[in-house]
Each structure stands twice: as C-alpha cells, then as structure tokens.
Amino acid sequence: MFHRPDGSPVEATGRPLDGSAESLVERNTRARLRIDRSTLTPDWYGDRLDPEPILDALLPPGTTATAVA
pLDDT tier at 65 (50, 70, 90 boundaries)? Predict the structure, then answer.
C-alpha cells in the first residue's frame, strides 16, 4: 500500500494486472488506447533532452537540482 506525505493511505483504483496479454489488450481497448509497434517511437528530431522541466515536475518545491549533461 502507498501513503501520502501526511500518512493517509492511497486506495487502489483498479484490479492489479494478472500478466495475461489478453487482459492487457482488453483493458487498453476499454481505455481507447491504440498501442502498436510504433507507440514507443519518439517524435522528436534528435535535439538534446532538457532535463530541467522534467526535474521541476518530479521534485518537490524548494528542491534545487543540477543536471549534469
């Protein structure tokens, strides 16, 4: 079980995955997700990743992060 910073529990939101490909396809279909062999193909042009906005979103406010390129 997961807990919030204040200690209160985060309740489960759905059934855990059972490892079955068929149930995963069914779940994705119900969610109207189209997953195919190109789903993980990036649509960027090879420019360098700027980690600052990612770290800003992941780290708590007031945390200073320095990314080393």
Answer: low
